[in-house]
TrEMBL record, chain A:
<dbReference type="InterPro" id="IPR028082">
    <property type="entry name" value="Peripla_BP_I"/>
</dbReference>
<dbReference type="InterPro" id="IPR006311">
    <property type="entry name" value="TAT_signal"/>
</dbReference>
<comment type="similarity">
    <text>Belongs to the leucine-binding protein family.</text>
</comment>
<keyword id="KW-0732">Signal</keyword>
<keyword id="KW-0472">Membrane</keyword>
<protein>
    <submittedName>
        <fullName>ABC transporter substrate-binding protein</fullName>
    </submittedName>
</protein>
<feature type="transmembrane region" description="Helical">
    <location>
        <begin position="12"/>
        <end position="31"/>
    </location>
</feature>
<feature type="domain" description="Leucine-binding protein">
    <location>
        <begin position="42"/>
        <end position="387"/>
    </location>
</feature>
<keyword id="KW-1133">Transmembrane helix</keyword>
<dbReference type="Pfam" id="PF13458">
    <property type="entry name" value="Peripla_BP_6"/>
</dbReference>
<dbReference type="InterPro" id="IPR028081">
    <property type="entry name" value="Leu-bd"/>
</dbReference>
<keyword id="KW-0812">Transmembrane</keyword>
């Protein structure tokens, strides 16, 4: 006789199923090309980005960008006759989860390249499993603090030199003399500030104070009082969300903008325009590799293509989300593999990638600086006016000055 | 002048903390349930205002609706899920945490994981004694005073409040006296949720809407309740006032990163010396 008490109930089965689903996650995903090259197979690119978690808005735009580029390349016949196959893994804004998921890309899928990681802590966590133990090529697409000079790890986002060398002299020329550097307490602001301070002082400006806050601090009254009392005229901000919204609001209410103060913030892109009311960030200046307001025909068409491919998507094609860095990474890799005639062996591709360049892209072309693991690219200064960015300056092929 | 400025900023953040923690404290004190989804009820209040604003309603309309909508959600959750946890507080913490997680991720999906600004019905600032006073922060202080007073009157001075306290003290005897503890618990939980919704609706113009808004207050909220003591109305209010005061005041005198840690160290020292909290009632 069957022992009824030991048989799992439907509810238990359902629970177990859901539990397994939750444990394995929904992050693994493969985008297969519609055709294949029978002899050599597809080129496998792993995308490891934050599909869930606090910065999912950025990770999803990276993933959408990667899909769009892969589809375009495949429709045009692939790279040297081989199509691209994308493998997505969720880094989930959690380094422990990320390392396990990225290992899957390396060990099970044996991808030829990993693109991804948005925060610096994520890059630090996954670079060793990819580059050292995994012996795989890795491209990091986000603007960051610099100083990443690991062989087989290429960077396609802007560095402190690219974001400060032109920007800070411009701020000084606009009348900023007394700077303050309020910052979230982690590695990017600390290293960026070290660079920014040098540029500020070299250009005749003065750093009144440099102060660090817990990453999730949302009350800035003491900072605002200090800014107002010390007659700071430019707040070079690296406080990040969630703190930056209340911080700018408190500054505005205290009359900082009213007395002619200037906000400057080098990670501010179109997504950040929603964090505050337009009047609370009027005149905010930022310096990035791309803005949606750019009017060169390639950038305009690219944005139109992205919006047509992902109609109504809440994940936008913007620089601060690393979407432009992902676009550049895919296209530079395409050039590298064309140069190797379809060979994706790490040593060979890395040598070709080191010299790769693309004539066009979001904001303009890009060119790897040989032996330096970073790319030259155009940089733009924009200022927030009534809730939108207005372009102020364009700088051609700015040097990353790294390594 | 700087002192006046400091005083207002302290008062303002203290009011915010008290408002956010009030519902948590009431549910913890009156029902013995630590509601780990409290932060997400705050988030739902904020979310309601944003949704209202996006659909063309003024933000004050959303603020009026938020406490009732969140109270209704709280009531529903109590009747379907939370009431099963009363027998075992640890399971209750895990269970409410899970509820919070679901609510948070749903809101994250609906907001695209982005930050969204929400307008204050009364914006800008006014001059008082030569001091620039932010208007909305002043409103939050006044509303907090009114809500604390109202909640205290309700729980300490009305028959309903007496029944709630009786149901906490001795549920069996309360039931024997003809009080429906089931309904009272549901009502108390909904009341706590409604207060959280109100708090979220009022503070969202200051902090913007984002999925982790409630999470931000969760740890400080629990510390406040621990510090103030579970089992009374006044305890959590005093506890949250102390935490709010410390959080806003310490960065004026020590580096902010140190201040963040110092708040916790000070609170833990107090809890060590006085484990029952500031105020302790027998029977809790």
């Amino acid at each position: 006789m069957r022992d009824e008490t030991k048989a799992p109930t439907r509810r238990q089965l359902l629970g177990a199923g859901l539990g397994t689903w939750a444990a394995v996650g929904t992050g693994s995903w493969v985008l297969r090309p519609s055709w294949a090259n029978a002899q050599t197979g597809p080129i496998k690119i792993g995308i490891a980005t934050d599909i869930t978690g606090a910065i999912a808005y950025a990770g999803n735009s990276c993933w959408q960008t990667a899909q769009m580029v892969a589809e375009e390349i495949n429709a045009a016949g692939g790279i040297a006759g081989r199509p691209i196959q994308l493998h997505l893994e969720d880094t989930a804004s959690n380094e422990t989860t990320a390392v396990a998921n990225v290992r899957r890309l390396i060990q099970r899928e044996r991808v030829d390249l990993v693109i991804g990681g948005i925060t610096s802590s994520m890059r630090q966590a996954i670079k060793d499993p990819i580059v050292t133990r995994g012996r795989t090529l890795y491209i990091y697409p986000q603007l960051y603090e610099g100083q990443e000079c690991t062989p087989f790890l290429f960077n396609t986002g802007p560095t402190p030199a690219q974001q400060c060398d032109e920007f800070i002299p411009w701020l000084v020329k606009q009348g900023a003399k007394r700077f303050c550097l309020p910052s979230a307490n982690y590695v990017w602001p600390r290293l960026l500030n070290r660079y920014a301070r040098k540029v500020i002082e070299a250009n005749g400006g003065e750093v009144v104070f440099e102060e660090y806050y817990p990453i999730d601090q949302i009350e800035y009254s003491s900072t605002v009082a200090r800014i107002m009392n010390d007659r700071v005229d430019c707040v070079f901000n690296t406080v990040i969300p969630p703190g930056v919204g209340p911080f700018f609001k408190q500054l505005h209410t205290a009359g900082f903008l009213g007395r002619g103060g200037r906000l400057a913030c080098v990670y501010y892109d179109e997504n950040m325009l929603n964090v505050n009311r337009p009047e609370e960030m009027e005149g905010l200046a930022t310096c990035l590799d791309y803005f949606q307001a750019l009017d060169d025909s390639f950038s305009k068409e690219l944005l139109a293509k992205y919006n047509a491919r992902w109609p109504g998507s809440q994940y936008r094609f913007v620089a601060g989300s690393a979407a432009t860095g992902v676009w550049r990474a895919m296209k530079l890799y395409e050039q590298a593999v064309i140069a190797t005639k379809g060979d994706t062996a790490r040593q060979t591709v890395a040598a070709a990638f080191d010299k790769a360049s693309i004539p066009n892209g979001p904001g303009g072309g890009a060119e790897m600086v040989p032996g330096k693991y970073h790319a030259k690219m155009n940089m733009y200064i924009a200022v927030a006016k009534a809730g939108n960015y207005q372009l102020q300056q364009r700088y051609e092929m700015v040097d990353p000055k790294e390594c | 002048m700087l002192l006046l400025n400091l005083a207002f900023d302290l008062l303002s953040f203290t009011a915010i903390m008290v408002l956010v923690v009030l519902g948590l404290g009431i549910v913890a004190s009156m029902m013995g349930v630590f509601n780990f989804a409290h932060g997400e009820f705050v988030l739902l209040g904020a979310f309601t205002v944003w949704v209202a604003e996006r659909n063309g309603f003024p933000s004050w309309a959303g603020m009026l609706a938020a406490p009732f909508i969140v109270a209704a959600i709280g009531w529903l959750l109590e009747r379907t899920v939370v009431h099963r946890f009363y027998a075992s507080p640890v399971v209750g913490m895990l269970g409410t945490y899970a509820i919070g997680l679901v609510l948070r991720e749903v809101v994250r999906g609906l907001t695209g994981g982005q930050f969204h600004t929400v307008g204050e019905p009364v914006g800008g600032s006014f001059d008082l004694l030569g001091l620039t006073v932010p208007a909305w922060r002043s409103v939050v202080i006044l509303v907090t005073l009114a809500v604390v007073l109202g909640a205290w009157l309700l729980l300490a001075r009305t028959t309903l409040g007496l029944q709630v306290r009786a149901a906490l003290e001795n549920p069996a005897l309360a039931r024997a006296s003809g009080i429906s503890t089931t309904r009272l618990y549901a009502a108390t939980f909904a009341f706590g949720a409604g207060l959280a919704g109100l708090a979220g609706a009022l503070v969202v113009p200051l902090f913007s809407l984002f999925a982790d808004l409630g999470l931000r207050f969760l740890v400080q909220g629990f510390l406040s309740v621990m510090l103030g003591g579970v089992g009374s109305f006044e305890g959590p209010v005093l506890g949250s006032a102390a935490i709010g005061m410390l959080s806003a005041g310490l960065p004026w005198v020590v580096p902010p990163i140190l201040a963040d840690v110092l708040v916790f160290v000070l609170a833990l020292v107090v809890i060590k010396l006085r484990p029952q909290g500031f105020i302790h009632r027998k029977g809790a």
